[in-house]
Amino acid sequence: MNRFLTTILFLLAFSSISLGQGKEAQPNIILVFMDDLGYGDLGVTGALDYHTPVLDRMANNGIRFTNFLVPQAVCSASRAALLTGTYPNRMGISGAFMPNAGVGLAPEEETLAEMLKSKGYATQIIGKWHLGNEPEFLPTKQGFDAYYGIPYSNDMWPVGFDGKPAKTDSYVAKYPVLPLLQIKGGQERPDTVMKINNLEDQAVLTEKYTQQAVDFINNNRKKPFFLYLAHSMTHVPIAASKKFRGTSEQGLFGDVMQEIDDSMGQILKSLKDNGIADNTIVIFTSDNGPWLNFGNHNGSSGGFREGKGASWEGGQRVPCIISWPNKIKEGRINNNLTSSMDIYATIAELSNFKGQKNQIDGISFLDQISDSKAPGHRQSMYYYYNKNDLEAVRYKNWKLVFPHRSRSYEGILPDNDGFGGKYNEHEIKEMELYDLRRDPSERYNVIEQNPEILKVLLGIAEEARNDLGDNLTKSEGKNRRPLGRIK
């Protein structure tokens, strides 16, 4: 009998250990996606006159990626790429969808939420969606169990830059009232939590998102979960809750950033309070660079050239921090070329997901999380903009820019205090080559000195045009998929 009891106790203990290992094999995942946050907008990347101590600690104890690119420097395209691991133009997506445009992320595309839901995860999105606001395209049609947030950008509302109702001759007067929506499990259509009519209504969004995030963590602490928190800030119009107004020396933008930092603090505290911090991956990044013509109501590209809406580094290079205490035991810097598309591929490898039906463009960096000496795997990157314009390509630290016209923030002053200044226009008339290791601000064209590098980059461009097409050279591309449209 004693031997029998001993055997039973051993089996129970082994079973308990195995279950614990299984739980570790399914870490919780929190993906925080900022809006228009520039590379230089965190304390750890040089921000001045406001403080982000929570994010700085997260960077100092986790991995900070310094060479992290989004595939397009604009809202809907960047979000589609993040959630599917795919170049947005492969899916027919470009720009920022307007309200009630009748288009969205195609239901056939497979998102991070669908992937993780198939692995038993609870899934929720909080914040900005911007991948189609009609019922056919809402997040609960793309793998999310629940949704709480706004359907598109927070400036798509019938309100002027001064926070007052738009004048009838203004283009924004045609926008519908901006709703804060909620879809709970099983609902087909969203409920409107509140109508966002003015800047004071905007000021509660970060606080409300944060509370929803904490509630989600508390309610799902005993099972694996995926939380996608897509903040409305720092997209203009920016707004901070009363608690944070006047707390920084950088005006309202600094106040907004300090509230975002506090939000991260509350989320990390809830993980710790529930005993799940060590087994939770937290990823913090942004959809594109700063909207620089809004002056003091937007941020900094950290010295990189240009900002949102441009294929220069200031538009597409963004901060990225990853924390995972179970695997990342000390802080480090990762300078390898990586992309927001790679997050999908990394999580697919982590979760042993084999069911991907569509071609993706992400490349897993999972081994770089646990091994500081692991090499980078991404060697190249395509820089598309507009409908399908290949404006540049990348090979390691080399970047080849093709002739094109683009918006520019240079040579013209921004406006301030919530008002947007005019854009300039920049024209590249001949190909330009930049060595981003020596010249990260893209100022010195070295094309004549590097004919062999030029040949490699032209080969990469030809691959891109054959695969995805290029309107600038009238190339069709062989592997593009249709945009989702209302039937």
From TrEMBL:
Keyword Signal included in the entry's annotation: yes
Keyword vocabulary terms for this entry: Calcium, Hydrolase, Metal-binding, Signal
One Pfam family here: Sulfatase_C
Record carries keyword Hydrolase: yes
Domain Sulfatase N-terminal: 27-351
Signal peptide bounds: 1-20
Recorded superkingdom: Bacteria
Family: Belongs to the sulfatase family.
Name by which UniProt lists this protein: Sulfatase
Protein species of origin: Sphingobacterium daejeonense
